[in-house]
């Protein structure tokens, strides 16, 4: 990965989102902000504040909203599902609270999957890139192990390696340390910091963990569908 110049990685303007079931409820109320390339941003707030809904809109998985969303200057509002799926695979890496690894596959095979789907590299090049991602996460010795045989902390690092495989514009995390003990949570925070400092990786994470949020470059606090700070 090459270090990026300081430019806008993501821009959201006047985002409005409603839920309609069981009754109409406005969950996001005109939110606007930019995220710089190479920035490590956390989004915090109590349950029901709208933070997870916001992340799903930012990730392009939820398209039922008003307002506009652009990533790397590309306007994504109004794009169709096939276009968005292709964009996500190439430009967005995901790290969830639960790692969603395939237990019958090795760590290396799990990391390779998004790049095999993207189809821009040969299988040999994908394998090398996956191994390099595992090496970056200090897991090269676990590459040929089935992920079901790895510890929770190792599994989450494999999930981060998988998120990195296509050199995404942005990594989006939904409670990425929510299922980890304090030692592994700290390790994931350090990995994310290293990715932003050393490689200019942009990272946006929703978190309940105040220690995690405190150690990011910037924190957006949400309440009742609005940004407080």
Architecture overview:
By secondary structure, the chain is α/β, with parallel strands linked by helices. It has a domain at 38-49 and 87-227: P-loop containing nucleotide triphosphate hydrolases (Rossmann fold, 3-Layer(aba) Sandwich). 35% of the residues lie in helices and 26% in strands. It has 7 helices and 10 strands. It has helices at residues 51-58, 81-91, 107-118, 123-136, 152-164, 182-199, 210-214; strands at residues 8-19, 25-36, 40-44, 66-71, 74-75, 92-96, 170-174, 202-206, 218-223, 226-227. A 6-stranded mixed β-sheet has the order 6-7-8-3-9-10. Strands 2-1-4-5 form a 4-stranded antiparallel β-sheet, covered by helices on one side. Strand 7 (170-174), helix 6 (182-199) and strand 8 form a beta-alpha-beta unit. Helix 3 packs across helix 4 (123-136) and helix 4 packs across helix 5 (152-164). The two termini are 31 Å apart.
